[in-house]
Amino acid sequence: MTRRTVRIAMNGVTGRMGYRQHLVRSILAIREQGGIDLGDGSALWPEPVLVGRRDFALKSIAERHGLDEWTTDLDAVLTDGSIDVYFDSQVTSAREDALRKAIAAGKHIYTEKPTATGLDGALALARLAHAEGVKHGVVQDKLFLPGLLKLKRLVDGGFFGRILSVRGEFGYWVFEGDWQEAQRPSWNYRSEDGGGIVVDMFPHWEYVLHGLFGKVNSVQAHAATHIPRRWDEQGRGYEATADDSAYGIFELEGGVVAQINSSWAVRVNRDELVEFQVDGTEGSAVAGLRRCRAQHRSGTPKPVWNPDLPATESFREQWQEVPDNGEFDNGFKAQWELFLRHVALGTPYDWDLLAGARGVQLAELGLRSSAEGRRLPVPELSL
Ligand SMILES: NC(=O)c1ccc[n+]([C@@H]2O[C@H](COP(=O)([O-])OP(=O)(O)OC[C@H]3O[C@@H](n4cnc5c(N)ncnc54)[C@H](O)[C@@H]3O)[C@@H](O)[C@H]2O)c1
């Protein structure tokens, strides 16, 4: 097979997401499988150029994986005509500037969410990319999770009848950092550094709800900072200025009501770290990262409320596992492959900077709804 290379400047690969999901599990995994088969006797071959602020950290990653290109000079990489795609998984607050430069330099864009810290910036990026004619994509990994792919299959197959409601439960305990190290970066808990669970998770909920059930028409949210003091990577105490929990109600087109709790201050009593229950007139389903279980109308038990008697039924056992019926790849990798095909072949790709701006919009409106204590409409965005 002949190789067709696509050169990707990857900025933020020393971070959690950039290293594990994007470099190792996506780009290097694509190389390990021999590239992306384009179906014409050629394979698309990604060549990463690692970009970051710390030379020694980039060098060490490059050496670990047999790569030989890295740089701390973002401007130089953007003026390098051999680079096709700019990828960004930096801290959120650093993203908008870097993306703007990369678009202006004519690079195709692939980026983590949120694409900017505010809607104006996110929309401006989408418009700029459109005007420059570059291709652009935003990570929407949850749509590619096995559990949600199976849920989507149920939706598309009409399993639910009329969908009534969606209830999402996301979260786990993030250690404060004093007694046990925190398992997430400390900037996530400081709003001045782009942190906060609304800014982080509402972009995900926007595309999940939109992609599976319909556009979000309104939002009502309550954001809270339950843990006001945390300890950072150096063990220094700091004030957690950002929200660590958010309780949101979203009205979707078609009348579906979605309610999603997001929290880094809950202990898990669920099968998975995120779960969505969908109830419809004909059936219900509960989907997590990997599993999806369904209960049809015909198999629905008839519980009778009686607090005087212990429960005699095992309600969880009354659900049926939805089969995989296929193999699921890592969600980040699956989306990278679609994006790189889009770049190479011009195949359709919907998860672009305008879609990314919708996520930023929902986060912004969620925070405003919480601050003002009222439900807000979500206007349709356009270029
Ligand atoms: N798609 C998802 O599921 C998902 C999950 C977690 C995070 N994210 C997003 O990915 C991005 C990175 O998150 P992460 O958890 O990997 O963060 P991280 O702190 O682990 O990594 C941040 C990266 O940005 C770089 N950086 C650039 N400027 C910086 C600065 N001024 N201060 C600190 N670091 C700086 C760091 O060197 C590092 O490479 C965020 O925008 C976040 O919203 C997405």
Automatic annotation (TrEMBL):
<feature type="domain" description="GFO/IDH/MocA-like oxidoreductase">
    <location>
        <begin position="149"/>
        <end position="285"/>
    </location>
</feature>
<dbReference type="Pfam" id="PF01408">
    <property type="entry name" value="GFO_IDH_MocA"/>
</dbReference>
<dbReference type="InterPro" id="IPR055170">
    <property type="entry name" value="GFO_IDH_MocA-like_dom"/>
</dbReference>
<dbReference type="InterPro" id="IPR036291">
    <property type="entry name" value="NAD(P)-bd_dom_sf"/>
</dbReference>
<dbReference type="InterPro" id="IPR000683">
    <property type="entry name" value="Gfo/Idh/MocA-like_OxRdtase_N"/>
</dbReference>
<protein>
    <submittedName>
        <fullName>Oxidoreductase</fullName>
    </submittedName>
</protein>
<dbReference type="GO" id="GO:0000166">
    <property type="term" value="F:nucleotide binding"/>
</dbReference>
<dbReference type="Pfam" id="PF22725">
    <property type="entry name" value="GFO_IDH_MocA_C3"/>
</dbReference>
<feature type="domain" description="Gfo/Idh/MocA-like oxidoreductase N-terminal">
    <location>
        <begin position="53"/>
        <end position="136"/>
    </location>
</feature>
